[in-house]
UniProtKB/TrEMBL annotation:
This is PQQ-dependent sugar dehydrogenase. InterPro entries: 6-blade_b-propeller_TolB-like, Glc/Sorbosone_DH, Quinoprot_gluc/sorb_DH_b-prop. Pfam families: GSDH. It comes from Streptomyces sporangiiformans. The keyword Signal applies. Keywords: Signal. Residues 1-26 form the signal peptide.
């Protein structure tokens, strides 16, 4: 998306520890955390089956959603999901029972891509009951912390403010990494110069403590972990703890990037692979009609990238720092695919749609959460 949304015709869908060293950070290698209650930490702890599994089946877990956006697992295997435009937070069990747990205050829509975006359950949720959210507010995008005690949502503490917002390019994905720190993706808010400005929080991947302070070892002593991003909405870690990111391009190429501390990923100087000095090239790129990716997840030797405009689930095998040949699944079958996450304890994914957003054109309640089995 440039300064406007991508519009596509809708199809009808069928039935390291907290004391990580600077050297490890620079290599992008972040060892597994000891905490529980966070799927990311569990998914990078060496649980690969040792085979190259692929999607073998898909079923509906829950329907009746309106632009579900963020998803994060609770220790019991259920998930918390946000709805972008209703500002509501829901709990969804693996059997499909959905319960609204609260509405997040101070959220506003941008009538585009802003609103209530990412959610991240604290790795120490069993003791602190914290839930982290990223949302658009009256003056900015921000990261906040609330308390979810298992039945209701309360409290509201602003951790990071002053992330510029706009109608589009708000980023919004937040996740705890295997090092125990919170990572966030921020868009350039439709001003590409911000992505190259180390003093700006926009067009970046941020890395922070649970209180919203710069994490130890960050390359510039600020919240900024990497720069040169346009509108990143996907973060995940592989089994070796390497950080991967999915990013919307402008009109040429969308990107899959291997993120390393302090690296510059090019925007707006580069879109896709380029030869400009000091820029880090993507590991894979797609034309914008094939992808327009939001979330990315790692499962059993591969990355899974959810495509909005591309209306497909891309599987990309990974070996070390290399990304293999992408293969598309479910092309044009379920519409705009927003979020994908590995299911804890299962060789499966949860995959959600946002067909009821401005680009999808479907009515409220048209979105679904699917389970994709791998084998």
């Amino acid at each position: 998306m440039a300064s406007h949304p991508r519009i596509t015709a809708r199809r009808v869908p069928p039935a390291l520890t907290a004391a990580a060293t600077a050297v490890a950070l620079a290599a992008g290698l972040l060892g597994a955390a000891a905490g529980t209650g966070n799927a990311t930490a569990r998914s990078v702890s060496g649980t690969d089956s040792g085979i190259d599994s692929v999607p073998t089946g898909i079923r509906t877990v829950s329907s009746g959603w309106t632009v579900p956006w963020g998803l994060s697992w609770l220790p019991d295997g259920s998930a918390l999901l946000t709805e972008r435009d209703s500002f509501k937070l829901f709990k969804l069990t693996q059997s499909g029972t959905r319960t609204q747990v609260g509405t997040v205050p101070n959220v506003v829509t941008t009538n585009g891509e802003g609103g209530l975006l990412g959610v991240a359950v604290s790795p120490n949720w069993r003791t602190d009951h914290y839930v982290y959210l990223m949302h658009s507010a009256a003056s900015d995008n921000r990261i906040v912390r609330m308390t979810y005690d298992g039945s209701s949502l309360s409290g509201y503490k602003v951790l990071v403010t002053g992330i510029a917002k706009n109608k589009y390019h708000n980023g919004g994905r937040i996740k705890f990494g295997p090092d125990g720190y919170l990572y966030a993706t921020t868009g350039d808010a439709q001003n590409g110069d911000r992505a190259q400005d180390k003093n700006s929080l926009n067009g970046k991947i941020l890395r922070m403590t649970a209180d919203g302070k710069p994490a130890p070892g960050n390359p510039f002593g600020t919240l900024v972990f990497s720069l040169g991003h346009r509108n990143p909405q996907g973060l995940t870690w592989d089994a070796q703890g390497r950080l991967w990111e999915a990013e919307f391009g402008n009109s040429k190429y969308d990107e899959l990037n291997l993120i390393e501390s302090g690296k510059n990923y090019g925007w707006p100087i580069c879109e896709g692979t380029c030869s400009s000095s000091g820029m880090t090239n993507p590991k894979r790129q797609w034309t914008v009609s094939e992808a327009s990716p939001s979330a990315v997840a790692y499962a059993d030797g591969a990355l899974y990238l959810a495509a909005l405009r591309g209306e497909r689930l891309w599987r990309i095998p990974v070996s070390g720092t290399s990304a293999g040949t992408p293969v598309a699944h479910y092309t044009s079958q379920y519409g705009r695919l927003r979020t994908v996450e590995k299911v804890p304890g299962k060789n499966a994914l949860w995959l959600s749609t946002t067909n009821a957003d401005n680009n999808g054109g479907e009515p409220d309640g048209a979105d679904k959460v699917f389970q994709v089995d791998l084998g």
